[in-house]
Amino acid sequence: MPVSVLLVDDQPLVRAGFRMILESAPHLSVVGEASDGREAVRAARTLLPDVVLMDIRMAGMDGVEATRLITSWAQPLGHDVRVLALTTFDLDEYVVEVLRAGATGFLLKDSPPAELVTAVEVVASGAAVVAPPVLRRLLDRFAPLFPSAADDGGAVATHLTAREHEVLRLVARGWSNAEIAAHLVLGETTVKSHVGSILTKLELRDRVQAVVYAYEHGLVIPGQPGTDR
């Protein structure tokens, strides 16, 4: 079955361009369009797409709130609608907000067509499309926008084993499974198992949300150098 995609953008010409690009791939199918967040939520409920290509800045209900609503009702229904957010700027506070709202990743609007197609495929497969190092730069820059809270890394540690806690810190630093395995002298399969356990215990969807979680809970200090590879 082709991957079904819902396009959300307040500019008709932009939607037309994305439709042309996505429908050039035989395994992707654009099943609907929406011009704002409210239309997106209604269309997502009706069409149940695999992926929502979501603009962030729109009049009325923006992409952040629409993403929050879509992901909040879709998961309990057993239909995991994944949101791939679109932004004009790679350093935009709305990017952080939309990831916290449940988006699986984000893509720049001026990305090459092939990258757009690949990003939709990656998100549809259940993986995150934002590279952790890119997300780390975003979080380092916009960390002051997070609600102020005391470092509760100790509370996180009660949910995780010491090894899982260590792996989470390295994931938040943007390290791949292979790099973590080499650093901790573990098998890559073991590291993958630890990451899966972390996501399950902390009720997180993917590595993107794990990075955000680590920053929010004080496990990583913005601007502080990580462990040398």
TrEMBL record:
Transcription regulation keyword on record:
yes
Positions carrying 4-aspartylphosphate are: 55
Ordered alphabetically, the record's keywords are: DNA-binding, Phosphoprotein, Transcription, Transcription regulation
Q: What is this protein called?
A: Response regulator transcription factor
Which organism's genome codes for this protein? Nocardiopsis codii
* Domain annotation HTH luxR-type: ranges: 153-218
UniProt feature coiled coil, ranges: none
What are the residue boundaries of the Response regulatory domain, all occurrences included? 4-124
What Pfam families does the record tag this protein with? GerE (PF00196), Response_reg (PF00072)
Q: What InterPro entries does its record include?
A: CheY-like_superfamily, NreC/VraR/RcsB-like_REC, Sig_transdc_resp-reg_C-effctor, Sig_transdc_resp-reg_receiver, Tscrpt_reg_LuxR_C, WalR-like
